[in-house]
Amino acid sequence: MPVGLPFYLGLAAVLFAIGAVGLLLRRDALVLVMAIELMWNAANLALVATARYYGDMGGQVFAFVVITAAAADVAVGLALAVLVGRARGTLDADQLKWLRG
Amino acid sequence: MGALALACLLLPLLGALVLSLLRLPRRVQGLVGAGSILLALIAAVALVLSGGGPGAYPFGADGSLAHGFDVPLATWAAGGTLSIPLGLWVDGLSAVFVLVITGVGFLIHVYSLAYMAAESDADYGRYFAGMNFFVGAMLLLVLADSFPLLLLGWAGVGFASYLLIGFWHERPAPVLAARKAFVLNTAGDAALVLAIALLFAGTGRLDFSGVLGASGASALAGQPGLLTAACLLLFVAAAAKSAQLPLQSWLSDAMEGPTPVSALIHAATMVTAGVYLIARCHPLFAASPTAAGVAGTLGALTALGAATVGAFSYDLKRLLAYSTMSQVGYMIAAVSFGAIAAGTSHVVMHAFFKALLFMAVGLVMHATGDERDMRRYGGLAAELPLARWGFLAGALALAGIPPFAGFWSKDAVLGQLLSGGHIGPYVLLALAALLTPFYIFRAYYLTFGGRYRGRQAVHAGGAASLRWPLVVLAVLSVLGGVLAVLLQRGWGEGLDWSSMGISTVLAAAGWLVAWRLYGTGDARADAWTTSVLGDVVRAEYGWEGLWQQVLVRPTHALAVWLRHSWEERAWPAAEGGIAAAAAALGRGLSGWQSGLLRRYALSMCCGAALILLYALVAGR
Q: In chain A, which residues have their Cβ closer than 8 Å to the Cβ of B595?
């Protein structure tokens, strides 16, 4: 059968889920950033696929915005990770708990 | 004319304000205290004269208060169906009461100038402030043109009574008496509020012309149950204020206050507030024979019962208190059954002779070192001639001996009841008319006849200001019958010659018995009062004990139990519990703030999932 919208959305959902699970289960800060990036891209895929399916250019234009946002997010996240790693000597998320109330 | 009415009302209140706020020398305090009442009296007289005299506002032919004039002052909260007019209403009834209040009030204030001279400057001022406030509140009560304003005056006199009964507040007895009076009065206040609410529900109006006039009558004609209930509640309120059954027990204890207070508040004016209320609302009582019957019968019962207790009393002031209860019973019975002129004339006469009696007793007390027990009196006629003759004049008037004042009004009451067909109350009041001369002449002979039985030396003497009010009241007690007859004539109730014979016989018989027993002043004649029956009667037939058992003890036990279980146990536990719960909640919630990144991420994911779910589900 032709590859329709549901497949693309399903793929996007799976990618998003993998990213979410990774965010929840991995400890290394860099891996967490990677997981977040994966989630961004899953959303992107969903956007573009839907836009192509319905013939609406708005979705594809918005995908560019999302790419930019993701890039900004990665930049900030990596910068934070570098700084924290230098300051505390570790990137293990379980050990970064100075925000404890 | 409206200005005169307003001035009459406001002057005593102004006096009270000045006396309570400023620290003045004693003479100025007395001047302000008595002077404000004098000015109010002058205003009242001017008011009545400018209206053409009290005969100019007679009752209408149908018994309604057809002639009077309204002095509208303001309207409070006029919104939708509720409109509370504030104004003064001057007609025959209110004019008579105003004259009595300011006239007798002024005499009592003058008497108090010297009587209360032993007090400190601050207490002297406090006394006159309280008395002035009372007069102002009582004037408001009788001059109001709507029920809410009347209620304001009503509550005001109750409060003034509390202040003045408990005047010597360092002693426990006056404080308890004041508290008791206030509690019983408050029961009456509650009843009055309910009655006003019922009348408003029935007629939609709160002013007298609306409720008591033709429109109110037609509105209430179709609601007999509501009308009767309202009238019964009005009677309860009147009973509380006028010390009638079943709310009468505060008056005898109220004698703990200074004697002029007893004279003004508990003889001449406040206890007649209930009479005024029923007289004012007499169209309502006329339309509800059930309520009128209940009120009149209870009034008559009180008259007789109080007279019997008075006959056994040793304490002279308490005896006069029971006498007041008894005479007010006459008034209540009269106005309940529609004999407004008779009842009102008795109010006026009673004010004269009862105030006179209290003043005379005050002189006796001053001379014997504040002694009140008649067993320690005797033979005071020589030392205190003014007190003796004053008391005699008052006694003759009270007993209803013609041609003294009390005869004309008391006989009018009896005659009206008889001709109105109210035989039961008539019999009760006639029996009371037999007992009244007995107890008052018993008091007279025991006090002024025979030989002195007391321990302290008797020192008579006193300022002139103690004397001439007594003289004025004595003259009024002797000659005042003219006023009573004029009032009755003017208001359409003629003299009833047939009942006069019976009244005279009753009065003479009572006096004769007293004279035979006590005429020589020998105290041994009083031995019959020391029996067990005497103790029972003096305890008001166990009424006080009944109240204690039924009301006071359970309430007290409830209060103690509440304090024990609630204030000392449950409430601290509840407070502690709430605090502990809050702390526990805080501790529990703070577990979430672990600082762990992954846990925060988990929370965010869960939250996002929930929102998505909601969006999915709610979108359907």
A: 96-101
List the single residue in B with minimal CA-CA distance to A27.
B598
CA angle B273, B394, B514 (to 5 degrees): 115
d(CA B359, CA B226): 44
Q: Is A26 helix (H, G, I), strand (E, B) or coil?
A: coil
What digits encode the pLDDT tens for the residues B305-358?
A: 999 998 888 899 999 999 999 999 999 999 999 888 888 899 999 999 999 999
Rounded Cα distance between B519 and B508, Å, is: 14
List C-alpha distances in Å: B393 to B150, B293, B471. 35, 34, 10
What is B204-242 written as a DSSP string?
S--BHHHHTSHHHHHHHHT-HHHHHHHHHHHHHHHHHHH
Cβ under 8 Å to B: A residues 8-27: 20, 23-25, 27
Would A72 be classed as within a structural domain?
Answer: yes
Residue A97 lies in a domain: no
The single residue listed with the structure tokens 């929102």 is B611
The string of pLDDT tens digits covering residues A2-60 is 788 999 999 999 999 999 999 999 989 999 999 999 999 999 999 999 999 998 899 89
Could you give the number of structural domains in chain A? 1
Residue A41 domain-assigned (yes or no): yes
* Nearest chain A alpha carbon to B589: A101
Q: Name chain A contacts of B601, Cβ cutoff 8 Å.
A: 23-24, 32
Q: In terms of residue numbers, what domain contains A84?
A: 5-89
DSSP B237-305: HHHHHHT-TTS-THHHHGGGS-HHHHHIIIIISGGGHHHHHHHHTHHHHHT-HHHHHHHHHHHHHHHHH
Its pTM stands at 0.79
> Is the CB of A99 less than 8 angstroms away from the CB of B595?
yes
Compute the nearest-CA separation of B612 from chain A (Å): 13
Q: Which two tokens stand for residue B210?
A: 């609306």
End-to-end CA distance of chain A: 55
Alpha carbon distance B515, B518 (integer Å): 5
Query: Phi-psi bin for B23: left (phi > 0), alpha (psi -120 to 50), beta?
Result: beta
Gap between the Cα atoms of B134 and B74, Å rounded: 23
Give the whole-angstrom CA distance, residue A14 versus residue B115: 104
Task: Tell me the two tokens of residue B6.
Answer: 């307003």
Count of alpha carbons within 13 angstroms of residue B420, beta-carbon side: 25
Residue B267 contacts residue B175 (beta carbons within 8 Å): no
Structure-token pair, residue B236: 């309860």
Residues of A in contact with B605 (CB under 8 A): 20, 23-24
Question: pLDDT class for B63, splitting at 50, 70, 90?
Answer: very low
DSSP lists the bridge partners of residue B82 as B79
Judge whether B595 is closer than 8 Å to chain A, CB to CB: yes
Distances (CA, A) of B438 to B312, B402, B513: 11, 16, 7
This complex has an ipTM of 0.85
Residue A99 lies in a domain: no
Question: Are A42 and A20 spatial neighbours (Cβ–Cβ below 8 Å)?
Answer: no
Q: Where are the domains of chain B?
A: 1-217, 288-538, 556-618
CA distances from B191 to B198, B213, B239, B531 (A): 10, 22, 10, 39
- What is the domain-level CATH number for residue A68? 1.10.287.3510
Percent composition of chain B: helix, strand, coil (DSSP 3-state, to 5): 75, 5, 20
- DSSP for residue A94: G
DSSP state of B167: S
| Inter-chain Cβ pairs, chain A and chain B, closer than 8 A | 33
